[in-house]
């Protein structure tokens, strides 16, 4: 394909893409194909000779599209949103043009420098404490990873090495110290609450350290409290274990609960700055975007007591997947844990410490030019435009809740609308009935193909989650969903 | 930005992009900016109101482009290539359109199924042993990761868990077994050779296990031999350590050496299928693409004795970054080590084991639709087109070597052209002089801005690396580089 053919093919693709978004509501939300649908449609091996562009492009419509679940469709209210936007799409085109592995500053200075600047912009816009800015007092800063899982694994590695180094700092170098380091490693425990996303447990599994959960309760709104944390820490210490890391969550996956940051801070305060300090990471992958609204800014303040924070702009901030923003209070801990300097990666700029080499802030060596899309989104929407988008998701969640409460004969709110997530159950006179009716409604709605919802089970309560953060959701979508919920539930109850 | 504005802006971007590639040779290869160049050019914070598209797009030219190092330019002969192509660029546009986190099959069946199929296509095209096919006898298969670093970390986790589980399988569940597992963990050693890419050492650092290197020698062409491995293993065992993992390399970063797969197999054979078996991963991140050529197919045969293999199509296979293809012989080891099933990720297809959920084959949860670009590239070029591309990189490396040997007064070949990489040094009557002259030449060439080369230091020999795999390199580029090398070296020698 030469550049003229590229112009034509790519412009045809642009029309295709615009059409796809213009008609996004026409699709069944979840792909309606059977496992294994694609293999019979494709040859058994790659072609020997190149194929015509037309035949390749045509297969997008005929073979790929039927197998796509439409995350941008208004009926997509499952999981959390994974939103794109036109400015992000164009940014991706440029970022792929300036294709490279970009691991060092010199491999494309713009890639590194724009990232530092945009991460500072975003930290300010969210009202994150100054310690997370690249020029802040504690030498912190932000970096873009691919996913929250990667972010959490990365800070957990830094936390582990910090913990072990500090706990053995008093020992002279030598065998005894070495032994103590290995002994400590075998006792480490990473913590989350029962509501913490599975990525923390997975990170612990990857690193081969223990994982323990702090209990949460319905009474406390499923948030992790300082008291519950204190009890769990005592328990672990009594067993001779070494808790070194905690994920606190701003917007849990199940119900969008916010852990009690102040309480957690108080519990951990006696250890701060001493050996045995526990690294606290705040996972705000989805709901962190709500800090853009002034009313939520107070939530960011206590994060100054913690060590790191992540929010995924690819979730609720209109930035194409993947884009996970991570900030640390002291970048030195990341660099100490992750830096490796073989000769072929050395250069004068890095050697003289004039520049940031983000490869030392992450697990992979190579890096995509991810900041470009975040920059485009921040500029094309402006902070006000992004605030309007976030506010819309919140308002629509509240609207659904308001509708659901008008029918207490059919529905029970499980957790109130918060950050665009409402969870509810079908009414019933026993827990068992509520669970089975809710499961049945959930299955029926998803089978309809008009909406895609997910469910959760918290403390044996089965609840339906509805997330209203996808950018194409409108009040009429909410009304349509509510009508379908009512109609389906009434139908089910009649058959009982 | 509405869809009409998107059509216009995106099509203007397409023209921009095509122009960039048409004129790729006009740029200074390495960005000529000072550290910190960008911050004074941008506002201190994100705009409150959205900005016009024109002003955003204009900044690409005026502020970003000067900070770009042009990895697609013919003068880019540093590191290994990171190549893009028009078909891959269009695929990325579609893949961003079908934006989503795609962690489960149902989150977009096409994303999972195309990946399985395309990984089978590619395995066949490379001549990988049958055990790496998804339908092969050992239940293996391929998955796309972002980078070789991620691939290596992931298989190292699987290797660790396999090793520990097998070594403790004879013990009844309980405290004693638990203790033995922790004891083993503290003794684990991951291995590479002195030529193994730093990502293996970094993975060991991330997992908190020891890393040991097998020595290599100039006499053996810097390859890891079975004998050297045997000696190192004996040494580690004598210290009571537990070697559990080895990276063998097909095309080392320094000099593109290929480790002695047959010899390594022989050394490890007595442990195969027993507790204490060492997981061997083959890192073919760059040179693996050369297996597309029939003459290199025999190299793939002994890989049947190993456990996993990776090649990065984003390096030498015209597929936009990031795209790292990983195959394992037994997918169960990945899934056992990495699977986590919270309620919100469960669904009937996964629960009934009807489908592949690639999230259990990797560290992140979310996944990009990466297989689309690999599919487009395989189809648009065909195997023959890709073979021609690889052959060209190889031939051009040989061409440079042939030129260099015509001037033994100026140059010494350090390692012969292999897979498009040739390394050389400046002649001199002492090792010290050779090193200093080579370093001087290297600095001068990079300062010229016409070419970007990297260097390496192997066994205290400083050598200049020239990698000829970038798709835009032509015979005339090689001639131009050679002329510049001659002219610069002659000039330097005159001044001595």
UniProtKB/TrEMBL annotation, chains A, B:
<dbReference type="GO" id="GO:0019752">
    <property type="term" value="P:carboxylic acid metabolic process"/>
</dbReference>
<feature type="modified residue" description="N6-(pyridoxal phosphate)lysine">
    <location>
        <position position="315"/>
    </location>
</feature>
<keyword id="KW-0210">Decarboxylase</keyword>
<dbReference type="GO" id="GO:0006520">
    <property type="term" value="P:amino acid metabolic process"/>
</dbReference>
<dbReference type="GO" id="GO:0005737">
    <property type="term" value="C:cytoplasm"/>
</dbReference>
<dbReference type="Pfam" id="PF00282">
    <property type="entry name" value="Pyridoxal_deC"/>
</dbReference>
<dbReference type="InterPro" id="IPR015422">
    <property type="entry name" value="PyrdxlP-dep_Trfase_small"/>
</dbReference>
<keyword id="KW-0456">Lyase</keyword>
<protein>
    <recommendedName>
        <fullName>Aromatic-L-amino-acid decarboxylase</fullName>
    </recommendedName>
</protein>
<dbReference type="InterPro" id="IPR002129">
    <property type="entry name" value="PyrdxlP-dep_de-COase"/>
</dbReference>
<dbReference type="InterPro" id="IPR015421">
    <property type="entry name" value="PyrdxlP-dep_Trfase_major"/>
</dbReference>
<dbReference type="GO" id="GO:0030170">
    <property type="term" value="F:pyridoxal phosphate binding"/>
</dbReference>
<comment type="similarity">
    <text>Belongs to the group II decarboxylase family.</text>
</comment>
<dbReference type="InterPro" id="IPR015424">
    <property type="entry name" value="PyrdxlP-dep_Trfase"/>
</dbReference>
<dbReference type="InterPro" id="IPR010977">
    <property type="entry name" value="Aromatic_deC"/>
</dbReference>
<dbReference type="InterPro" id="IPR021115">
    <property type="entry name" value="Pyridoxal-P_BS"/>
</dbReference>
<dbReference type="GO" id="GO:0016831">
    <property type="term" value="F:carboxy-lyase activity"/>
</dbReference>
<keyword id="KW-0663">Pyridoxal phosphate</keyword>
């Amino acid at each position: 394909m030469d550049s003229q053919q590229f112009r034509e093919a790519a412009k045809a693709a642009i029309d295709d893409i615009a059409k796809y978004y213009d008609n996004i509501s026409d699709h069944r939300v979840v792909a309606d194909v059977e496992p294994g649908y694609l293999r019979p449609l494709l040859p058994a091996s790659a072609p020997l000779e190149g194929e015509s562009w037309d035949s390749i492009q045509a297969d997008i419509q005929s073979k790929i599209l039927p197998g796509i679940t439409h995350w941008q469709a208004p009926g997509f209210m499952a999981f959390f949103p994974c939103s794109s936007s036109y400015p992000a799409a164009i940014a991706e085109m440029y970022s792929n043009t300036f294709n490279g592995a970009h691991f060092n500053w010199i491999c494309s200075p713009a890639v590194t420098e724009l990232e530092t600047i945009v991460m500072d912009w975003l930290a300010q816009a969210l009202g994150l404490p100054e310690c997370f800015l690249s020029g802040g007092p504690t030498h912190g800063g932000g970096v873009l990873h691919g996913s929250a899982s990667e972010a959490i694994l990365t800070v957990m590695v830094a936390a582990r090495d910090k913990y072990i180094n500090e706990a053995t700092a008093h020992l002279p170098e030598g065998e005894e110290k070495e032994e103590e380091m290995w002994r400590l490693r075998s006792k480490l425990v990473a913590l989350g609450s029962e509501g913490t996303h599975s990525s923390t447990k997975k990170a612990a599994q990857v690193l081969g350290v223990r994982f323990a959960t702090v209990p949460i309760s319905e009474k406390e709104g499923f948030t992790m409290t300082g008291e519950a944390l204190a009890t769990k820490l005592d328990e672990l210490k009594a067993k001779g274990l070494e808790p070194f890391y905690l994920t606190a969550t701003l917007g849990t996956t199940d119900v969008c609960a916010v852990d009690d940051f102040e309480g957690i801070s108080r519990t951990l305060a006696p250890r701060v700055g001493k050996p045995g300090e526990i690294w606290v990471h705040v996972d705000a992958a989805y709901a962190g975007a709500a800090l853009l609204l002034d009313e939520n800014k107070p939530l960011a303040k206590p994060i100054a007591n913690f060590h790191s924070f992540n929010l995924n702009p690819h979730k609720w901030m209109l930035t194409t997947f993947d884009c996970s923003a991570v900030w640390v209070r002291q970048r030195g801990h990341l660099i100490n844990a992750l830096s490796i300097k073989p000769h072929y990666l050395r250069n004068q700029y890095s050697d003289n410490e004039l520049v940031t080499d983000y490869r030392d802030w992450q697990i992979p060596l190579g890096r995509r030019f991810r900041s470009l899309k975040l920059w485009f989104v921040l500029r094309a929407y402006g902070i006000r435009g992004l605030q309007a988008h976030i506010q819309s998701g919140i308002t629509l969640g509240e609207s659904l809740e308001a509708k659901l409460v008008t029918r207490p004969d059919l529905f029970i709110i499980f957790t109130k609308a918060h950050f665009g997530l409402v969870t509810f159950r079908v009414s019933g006179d026993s827990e068992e009935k509520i669970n089975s009716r809710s499961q049945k409604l959930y299955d029926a709605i998803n089978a309809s193909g008009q909406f895609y919802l997910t469910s959760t089970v918290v403390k044996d309560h089965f609840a339906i989650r509805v997330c209203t953060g996808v950018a194409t959701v409108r009040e009429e979508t909410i009304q349509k969903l509510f009508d379908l919920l009512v109609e389906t539930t009434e139908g089910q109850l009649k058959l009982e």
